[in-house]
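[Automated response] Your request has been received and processed.

Submitted sequence:
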Amino acid sequence: MAWIVLIIAGLFEVVWASLLDSTKGFSRLWPTVGFLVTLGISMYLLSIATRTIPVGTGYAVWVGIGAVGAFLVGVFVKGDETSVGQVAAIAALVTSIVAVKLTAA
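Generated structure:
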């Protein structure tokens, strides 16, 4: 169950990270509210998951989900440019996240 909570926390991290540029330096109300709410939910769920999952493992997976997800939102939703090198690096990150999960005690 803790791993499911951690994955959901990571998905909320994707949302808040993707909203960050829309806040325009926290000068726009609703994107800022969305950012703060999803940030709070993400942190709360991370804290629940790390009751059972070691904090280093949980944090690594949470950050990885957020980084990969924010990258994908940037490319597929916001039209960010990317390169073969970036895609290879993201693939390596996904491999690392899976390895962290598979080797966790």
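Summary generated for your ticket: The mean pLDDT is 96. The longest helix spans residues 55-76.
If you did not submit this request, please reply to this message.
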